[in-house]
Specification:
Blueprint (H helix, E strand, L loop, with lengths): L3 H17 L5 H21 L1 H25 L16 H7 L3 E3 L2 H6 L6 H6 L8 H7 L8 E3 L2 H9 L2 E3 L4 E3 L1 H6 L5 H12 L1
Parallel strand pairs: 1-2
Antiparallel strand pairs: 3-4
Helix pairs in contact: 1-2, 1-3, 2-3
């Protein structure tokens, strides 16, 4: 998440998509070349400090925030994941993604990404109509909410592992506190998995 400008954006969204299908995703290569060209121009013409403060740092921060927003809207206290036999499209959209409460400025900056549960329910609703949809459809108003408060950020970032037994996300500390299966139980589970 911290290095998402490199890992998610430049590598994941741009380089990987280009390598997977160069003819179809030629624009991904253009984005990488554009970022490199702008960086070189700024460093040569204005110096490292100008490049860092006007180009790199804003991209670095915005991608870090963006990565957190997507993470928190799928990994939050109360998230529900279901097995294939119990999976339902509407429930998955409303229970496995959250509504992130934001002020109007953040809503505008993020193109209403806080209404993520509605986006999962119907991705064809334009971002500028998401608040209207939530206002007029009572079922959408019952989504689990998350916020950008320090306590919510910490609560979301702690959650790392899904425990199907408890049907909830756990922190690493909670996972380590769970009773560990015995050696014979591990052999049994391995044998079942291999058959």
């Amino acid at each position: 998440m911290f290095f998402s400008y490199f890992t998610l954006f430049l590598y994941g969204m741009c380089l990987q998509s280009f390598l997977s299908s160069p003819k179809r995703h030629w624009d991904s290569l253009m984005v990488i070349l554009l970022h490199i060209s702008i960086s070189v121009f700024l460093v040569v013409e204005f110096g490292w400090t100008t490049w860092f403060l006007s180009f790199f740092f804003p991209f670095f921060l915005s991608h870090m925030l963006g990565a957190y927003l997507f993470y928190a809207q799928h990994n939050f206290p109360g998230v529900v994941f279901r097995s294939n036999k119990d999976w339902n499209y509407s429930k998955a959209a409303l229970e496995s993604s959250s509504y992130m409460v934001m002020n109007p400025v953040m809503q505008w900056i993020t193109a209403n990404i806080g209404y993520h549960h509605i986006h999962h329910l119907n991705a064809r609703i334009p971002f500028y109509r998401l608040p209207e949809a939530m206002k007029h459809i009572p079922e959408l108003q019952r989504a689990t909410t998350t916020r950008l408060t320090p306590s919510d950020v910490v609560a979301c970032l702690k959650l790392k592992v899904w425990d199907p037994e408890q049907n909830r996300m756990l922190s690493f500390a909670e996972m380590e506190a769970l009773p560990q299966p015995s050696a014979s139980m591990k052999k049994e589970l391995t044998a079942e998995h291999q058959s």
